[in-house]
Write a structure and sequence with these properties.
846 residues; Serine Threonine Protein Phosphatase 5, Tetratricopeptide repeat; 3-stranded antiparallel sheet; 3 strands; PPR_rpt; mRNA binding; TPR-like_helical_dom_sf; PPR_At4g14850-like_plant; repeat
């Protein structure tokens, strides 16, 4: 206006006008002032140029701000402060720190309190504690610690990095405290999960009559967002109503979030309806996000449709929330079309959400097309696509994308690195995983919880349990994910005792045990056949209320099945709230393995009628059921049904089931003919199945043929040698047995040492009976056992005695057979107690 009146403007006026445009966040007005500055020759003025830098920085045009900064040498601290604080506001914290180093290196200017507070804020945002401590030391040397802004930034640094004792020490030293320092302390306690201390600090703040703003209230409401904090949440809500802060949009949004997190959706909706200006997109976005995060998809979608009905245009935040909860691909296509029409697809958050959505449905082509359309990719978009490839089994593409990301000078964050490590876990790419581990060490982020958890999982899945344990032990804070990964790693690699001990440790730390961890532990117990431990875990599961969880229920079914308790399998199956394919298959397989073929097929038919389609694993269970129950015609029917009704091509396991079915039924020639006419070349499993059938029916000639085929396909597999020698032993051809055993030794193949154990009771003086485990191993020449008394011997049944005699005869003929071990175990158990004893061993026993 003054310019149009012909009044001459000076540098101070232009600088003030630019600062006003920045404060008002009015880039359009700022550009007009900028044009006048250039036109009237004030561009080189330091004060004016600082205003231009501040304008560009607050308008998210940091590159333009940097260009202006470097165009003319900056000789005043105001310009440096403008560009450093601008970088921090644009979340380019490393750029801010590089600028600070450059400022110190030039040595022309001394940073003031404004510079130092911005640099400390950057360190806090990056959680770079060591760097922050260095700046803190520099502050102390310069005597700048008394400044309220610098002191507040120091408090926020330690609080953000989780060092609350240090933060409290610095806070207590402050001569004057402001709302930012109080809020920093409260936020720090909240971040560390210490809601009690956060609320105590807030009460102290109110008692001291300190100024409280909407950001303080937001932190306090976050502290109340826990299941046990409902009473405190309502009290804070009442206080907000009294103070007049209820009309603030930020506070209302925080109230909605808080109530949704404690499950009080009715109160969330009450706060939403009491919002004066329902035209604010932000409040709608928070409500949709609240429903989405609590997996209430229907409510979220209804809210989104209501927005459209009200004539509002959902922004990128609302749209991204809706995309994240899409559960039908058709609906996802509709939302994608809407984003294109509304011009939202260009937003990086929307593009990333679409990538994740398509990856979730396995539509990687569409996902990658969306990813390529994102103009300015950020870490979220890169991570979304890398995760999509990794989770869908395309690890090589995930690795290549990670390399592309590094090549384009993008710096991966913890989420990205966790996604890459997941890809390493899926493909068991240990060397690549080690390279990524080295990268995290160089970056100094190897102690981040998310990265540590991913590393533990990667090393566990790759079988490198020593490295997994090493990373686990070095974690500053062990979380649920890291415990779950290591427990399942131990279980899957056969380290059962370690898995159980670690599970017990997790319970002692009072961490919430998830269904994945429990499933892993149940799997470990099932490998040990320890029914007693399994029932104890089942009781623990019932206390936690996880018995209806489908993964836990399926693991319980498999546990009880392997321990021979089919009735408990059925109970566990009925306890599952919503059955999936895995739980149905587990029940079918359990019935099949216990010879209840009719029941297994009945379960299969119920599953099919419920609309769940079987997969190849389900059909293995179905065919196994036919095999164990001698249902030959049904077996052929279901084998044909795989291809005809479901388009599933039978594999080796399916064909082996049919061979087993024919073999158990005594139709050995038909089994041989079936193998000969298979559409795929039979593997060792198919021939081994025929060999087992030959042993069952004493067919030496066909057994020799089957054994020969197995030996050709698997020269180092001792199973064929042992099975053939057993066939000869059954018909008394001991010379032939010894010949086969010598041939086996000549191949260098070794049989895993057999072991057998049972539980026995031992009586100690003045003590109750204590249970201990007696074990017998093949290599042991002598088993220390006191000769039983006459009374004990009377308790041995005739069948047990016969088994002992047979085992002794075979032991004299063939060293290394494990039957005597079973006999010894049963014998000692029988003479020690009159009760039934479960005998456990590592080789199957007929």
């Amino acid at each position: 206006m003054h310019s149009s009146l012909g009044i001459e403007l000076d540098d101070f006026t232009y600088g003030s006008a630019l600062s006003a445009c920045s404060a008002l966040q009015s880039p359009l007005c700022g550009k007009q002032v900028y044009s006048l500055v250039v036109k009237n020759g004030f561009f080189s003025n330091g004060y004016v140029r600082s205003g231009i830098i501040e304008l560009f920085a607050t308008s998210s045009c940091l590159e333009d701000a940097l260009r202006v900064f470097y165009d003319v040498s900056c000789e005043n601290v105001v310009g440096w402060n403008a560009i450093i604080s601008g970088a921090v506001k644009n979340k380019e914290n490393w750029v801010a720190l590089d600028l600070f180093r450059e400022m110190l290196h030039l040595g022309l200017l001394t940073p003031n309190s404004y510079t130092l507070s911005s640099v400390l804020t950057a360190c806090a945002a990056l959680e770079e504690l060591d760097l922050g401590k260095g700046v803190h030391g520099w502050v102390i040397k310069r005597g700048a610690g008394e400044d309220v802004f610098v002191a507040t930034a120091i408090v926020s640094l330690y609080a953000k990095c989780g060092f609350m004792d240090e933060a409290m020490k610095e806070f207590s030293r402050m001569p004057v405290r402001n709302v930012v320092s109080w809020t920093g302390m409260i936020s720090g306690f909240v971040q560390q999960g210490d809601s009690i201390s956060a609320l105590q600090f807030f009460r102290e703040m109110r008692k001291m009559r300190e100024e409280i703003n909407n950001y303080t209230v937001t932190s306090v409401l976050t502290a109340c967002a826990g299941p046990a904090m409902v009473k405190e949440a309502i009290q804070i809500h009442c206080w907000i109503l009294k103070t007049g802060l209820y009309s603030d949009a930020v506070v209302k949004a925080s109230l909605i979030k808080m109530y949704s997190k404690i499950g009080e959706f009715v109160l969330s909706e009450v706060v939403f309806k009491e919002t004066e200006d329902l035209k604010q997109l932000g409040i709608w976005g928070v409500m949709i996000s609240a429903f989405a995060q609590n997996e209430n998809s229907r409510k979220a979608i209804d809210m989104f449709q209501r927005m459209l009905y009200e004539g509002l245009k959902p922004d990128e935040f609302c749209t991204s929330c809706i995309i994240s909860i899409v559960y039908l691909l058709n609906f996802g296509w509709q939302i994608h079309c809407y984003t294109v029409k509304a011009g939202l697809v260009l937003f990086v958050s929307v593009g990333s959400a679409l990538c994740t959505m398509y990856s979730k449905f396995g539509s990687l082509v569409e996902s990658y097309e969306v990813f390529q359309q994102i103009v300015e990719k950020d870490n979220v978009s890169w991570t979304s696509m890398i995760s999509g490839f990794a989770e869908n089994g395309h690890a090589n593409q995930a690795f290549q994308l990670f390399r592309d990301m590094l090549f384009e000078k993008n710096e991966p964050d913890e989420m990205t690195l966790a996604a890459v490590l997941t890809a390493c876990s899926v493909t068991q790419s240990l060397n690549t995983g080690k390279e990524v581990h080295g990268y995290t060490l160089r970056r100094g982020i190897d102690k981040k919880i998310l990265v540590c958890g991913a590393l533990v999982n990667m090393y566990s899945k790759c079988g490198a349990l020593d490295m997994a344990k090493k990373v686990f032990d070095m974690m500053p804070v062990k979380d649920q994910v890291s415990y779950s990964s290591l427990v399942s790693g131990y279980a899957q690699n056969g380290c059962i005792e370690e898995a159980l001990l670690l599970f017990h440790e997790a319970q002692m730390t009072e961490l919430e045990i998830d269904s994945f961890t429990l499933s892993s532990v149940l799997g470990a117990v099932s490998l040990l056949n320890r029914l007693r431990i399994g029932t104890q875990l089942h009781a623990h599961i019932l206390k936690m209320g996880l018995e209806s969880d489908v993964s836990v229920g399926s693991s319980l079914i498999m546990l009880y099945s392997k321990c021979g308790s089919i009735d408990d399998c059925h109970k566990a199956f009925n306890g599952i709230k919503e059955h999936d394919l895995i739980s149905w298959t587990s029940m079918i397989t359990s019935y099949a393995q216990h010879g209840k073929g009719t029941e297994a097929l009945s379960v299969y038919e119920v599953m099919r009628k419920s609309g769940i389609k079987p997969d190849s694993v389900t059909f293995v269970g179905v065919l196994c059921a036919c095999s164990h129950s001698g249902l030959v015609e049904e077996g052929y029917y279901y084998l044909n049904s795989m291809v005809k009704d479901y388009g599933i091509e039978p594999g080796y396991r399916h064909y082996a089931c049919i061979v087993d079915l024919l073999g158990r039924s005594g139709r050995l020639k038909e089994a041989e003919s079936f193998i000969t006419n298979m559409p795929i070349k039979p593997d060792s499993l198919v021939w081994e199945t025929l060999l087992a059938a030959c042993k069952m029916h004493g067919d030496i000639e066909l057994g020799r043929l089957a054994a020969k085929k197995v030996m050709e396909l698997e020269p180092c597999d001792i199973g064929a040698y042992i099975s053939l020698s057993n066939i000869c032993a059954d018909v008394g051809q001991w010379e032939e047995v010894l010949k086969i055993r010598r041939e086996m030794k000549g191949t260098g193949a070794k049989k895993d040492p057999g072991w057998s154990s049972h539980r026995k009771k031992k009586l100690e003086k003045d003590k109750d009976k204590v249970e201990e485990i007696a074990s017998f191993f093949r290599w042991e020449k002598k088993h220390e056992m006191k000769f039983p008394s006459e009374e004990s011997l009377r308790r041995i049944s005739l069948s047990e005695l016969l088994m002992l005699l047979c085992a002794n005869q075979q032991m004299q003929m063939i060293s290394g057979m494990s039957s005597p071990l079973i006999a010894l175990s049963i014998f000692e158990g029988a003479v020690q107690t009159a009760e039934d004893i479960p005998v456990e061993k590592n080789w199957p026993m007929t």
